[in-house]
């Protein structure tokens, strides 16, 4: 089955975008709705007061119609066109006795049904003046002994529209300010509300980097189940790793114990050198596969963290037992802190092999000196032994190659160190020690910042 | 000289015991950590060979308990895992040396001899007392330039006296270091062994200190 690179799919919207968009949409809908409602009420309030003003004119005209249906103009204190002179008002009174007009002439284009909110019997209509100006009309139908009378007063719509427009402009301005305020509040809310999530992300990163073992339980209630699940997963992972390591240890014990018995028995029974060589071969294979299994179980590079100073001190203590009886002195010089992004057991293995190899070949002393070089820690291990000839250096790093036939020497140990170092993106270099004259091994490993 | 082998695998324990006995050591075995702790606490061993992976109590804990109880005989740890982490853990627990399985019989014997020699305060492997020379690494004795042929019991008594030359070793201690845990120790047999040794290296080399024990002395012929 071949794997094809799928185009990178767009992931779901971020939480920030979701909350910001929904808050924005909600604010817009609320403010637009609010705008409509307020406009409606402004129109209503303004037109009610406008109507009241016109109605007064209609009523005063109606009061000036006598029994015969004639308009007695003298009884009207101010005719609408005169009271609002120059403002384009107009009026008309039509009875069986005749028709009277004043001011702007207009033609009714649409009549509205009675408004139940108004107790008065006055009605509204739209009209257009002769000049084409839209007019608002209030009129009353009055029953007279001589027949019906229709009294109309018209005012330009502009008179009513202007305060409405002015009010509306205020509303829009206020709502715009309000929406800006709400937007700012939403951003603050987002930053404050999502802060635990950002902190959680940092905490997960810290766990991955090996800075902490699990996530803190001090979390908002909503995040607790997630944190509990992640911690359970971490614990499971840890337990799985421990199980795998224990399994490798048990496997080593289970395989090597009978192998030892076999080796001792073959020797006691005087078995041939070939039979004994087979045991040695079996042991090398088992050791190789156990190392592989352990490296696989270690999850290399994921959460490794080890303090070189501590590791070097522990190993120097061990070397004192291993080579101290031959009078080999170990000098350790490691800056503190010196944390490496390497699993502790692997670092033990690398530095342990280097110190042990050096101890085997040294006459009197072995030195370990570490220095920090940007993202790497350079560990130099040198001895005052014979060193390796330049031609033999590449051979020393070949797995299984041994420059010494009698003793587990440079070759075997160095190849293991090189294999492990490369798994961590590090490297191993051999040379001659300028200080001590023997072999100098430089091991470069990634530093943990 | 007497050693304890703490190993849970009966086959390996039996093979190791044969190897150690063939090398002249009185050898006891313990098949779990708890028994090992008990034997180490109650019997006078010259050295112990302890496997790490034992039931009930692992080898590291066994050594720790001995050290906490001031039992300071040297300990050789046997590990199946050849990792430095394990070795460091072993040395930190108080072990004196380690050996990774599998190993050959000569190696375990040499390591145990070397540990006992160092624990007795001898840096060099050759220990001399007058005309008597003991190669503590190879285990052989020479007397006046000739190899000395000794029985197992004779070797145990003489090596114990040799590593503590000029010091008085009590008869009861000699008995404890010569006989294994389950054997029927006959207290008179020590006199018999001493008598045989005196015939081989000269009566004056092994003094009887009345009421105390025996002393190997190098100053007189």
From TrEMBL, chain A:
Residues 250-449 form the Histidine kinase domain. Its EC number is 2.7.13.3. Pfam families: HATPase_c. It catalyses: ATP + protein L-histidine = ADP + protein N-phospho-L-histidine. GO terms for biological process: phosphorelay signal transduction system. One of its GO terms (molecular function) is protein histidine kinase activity. This is histidine kinase. It comes from Novosphingobium flavum.
From TrEMBL, chain B:
GO terms for molecular function: phosphorelay response regulator activity; transcription cis-regulatory region binding. GO terms for biological process: regulation of DNA-templated transcription. InterPro entries: CheY-like_superfamily, OmpR/PhoB-type_DNA-bd, Sig_transdc_resp-reg_receiver, WalR-like, WH-like_DNA-bd_sf. The keyword Transcription applies. It holds the Pfam family Response_reg. Residues 2-116 form the Response regulatory domain. Residues 124-218 bind DNA. Keywords: DNA-binding, Phosphoprotein, Transcription, Transcription regulation, Two-component regulatory system. The keyword DNA-binding applies. Residues 124-218 form the OmpR/PhoB-type domain. The modification 4-aspartylphosphate is found at residue 51. One of its GO terms (cellular component) is cytosol. PANTHER family: REGULATOR OF RPOS, RESPONSE REGULATOR PROTEIN CARR. This is Response regulator transcription factor. It comes from Novosphingobium flavum. The lineage of its organism: Bacteria, Pseudomonadati, Pseudomonadota, Alphaproteobacteria, Sphingomonadales.
């Amino acid at each position: 089955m071949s794997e094809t690179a799928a185009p990178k799919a767009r992931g779901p919207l971020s939480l920030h975008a979701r909350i910001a968009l929904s808050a924005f949409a909600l604010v817009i809908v609320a403010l637009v709705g609010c705008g409509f409602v307020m406009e409606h009420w402004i129109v209503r309030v303004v037109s009610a007061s406008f109507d009241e003003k016109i109605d007064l004119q209609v009523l005063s005209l109606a009061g000036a119609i006598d029994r015969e249906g004639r308009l007695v103009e003298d009884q009207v204190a101010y005719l609408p066109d005169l009271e609002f002179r120059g403002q384009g008002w107009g009026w008309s009174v039509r009875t069986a006795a005749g028709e009277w007009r004043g001011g702007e002439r207009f033609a009714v284009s649409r009549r509205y049904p009675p408004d139940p909110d108004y107790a008065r019997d006055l009605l509204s209509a739209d009209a257009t003046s002769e000049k084409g100006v839209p007019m608002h009309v209030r009129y009353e139908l009055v029953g007279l002994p001589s027949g019906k009378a229709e009294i109309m007063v018209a005012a330009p719509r502009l008179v009513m529209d202007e305060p409405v427009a002015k009010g509306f402009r205020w509303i829009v301005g206020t709502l715009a300010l309000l929406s800006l305020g709400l937007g700012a509040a939403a951003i603050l809310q987002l930053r404050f509300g999502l802060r635990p999530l950002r902190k959680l992300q940092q905490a997960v990163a810290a766990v991955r980097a090996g800075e902490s073992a699990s996530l803190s339980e001090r979390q908002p209630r909503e995040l607790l189940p997630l944190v509990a699940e992640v911690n359970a997963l971490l614990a499971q992972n840890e337990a799985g790793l421990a199980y795998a390591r224990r399994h490798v240890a048990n496997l080593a014990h289970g395989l090597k114990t009978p192998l030892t018995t076999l080796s001792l028995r073959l020797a006691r029974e005087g078995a041939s050198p070939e039979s004994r060589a087979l045991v040695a071969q079996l042991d090398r294979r088992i050791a190789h596969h156990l190392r592989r299994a352990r490296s696989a179980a270690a999850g290399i590079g994921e959460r490794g963290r080890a303090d070189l100073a501590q590791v070097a001190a522990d190993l120097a203590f061990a070397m004192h037992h291993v080579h101290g009886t031959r009078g080999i002195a170990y000098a350790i010089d490691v800056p503190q802190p010196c944390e490496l992004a390497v699993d502790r057991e692997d670092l033990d293995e690398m530095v342990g092999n280097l110190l042990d190899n050096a101890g085997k070949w040294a006459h009197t002393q072995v030195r370990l000196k570490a220095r920090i070089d940007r993202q790497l820690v350079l560990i130099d291990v040198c001895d005052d032994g014979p060193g390796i000839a330049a031609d033999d250096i590449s051979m020393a790093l070949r797995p299984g190659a041994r420059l010494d036939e009698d003793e587990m020497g440079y070759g075997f140990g160095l190849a293991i160190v090189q294999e492990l170092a490369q798994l961590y993106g590090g490297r191993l270099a051999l040379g001659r020690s300028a200080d001590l004259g023997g072999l100098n091994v430089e091991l470069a490993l990634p530093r943990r910042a | 000289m007497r050693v304890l082998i703490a190993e849970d695998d009966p086959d390996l324990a039996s093979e190791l015991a044969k190897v150690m006995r063939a090398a002249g050591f009185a050898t006891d075995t313990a098949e779990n950590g708890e028994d090992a702790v008990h034997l180490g606490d109650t019997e006078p061993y010259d050295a112990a060979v302890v496997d790490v992976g034992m039931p009930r109590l692992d080898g590291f804990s066994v050594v720790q308990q001995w050290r906490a109880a001031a039992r300071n005989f040297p300990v050789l740890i046997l590990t199946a895992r050849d990792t430095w982490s394990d070795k460091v853990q072993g040395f930190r627990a108080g072990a004196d040396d380690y050996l990774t399985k599998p190993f050959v019989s000569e190696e375990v014997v040499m390591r145990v001899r070397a540990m006992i020699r160092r624990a007795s305060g001898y840096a060099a492997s050759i220990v001399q007392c007058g005309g008597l020379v003991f190669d503590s690494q190879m285990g052989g004795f020479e007397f006046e330039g000739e190899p000395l042929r000794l029985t197992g019991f004779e070797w145990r008594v003489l090596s114990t006296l040799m590593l503590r030359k000029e010091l008085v070793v009590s008869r009861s201690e000699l008995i404890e270091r010569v006989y294994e845990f389950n054997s029927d120790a006959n207290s008179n047999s020590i006199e018999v062994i001493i008598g045989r040794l005196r015939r081989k290296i000269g009566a004056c080399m092994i003094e009887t200190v009345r009421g105390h024990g025996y002393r190997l002395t190098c100053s007189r012929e």
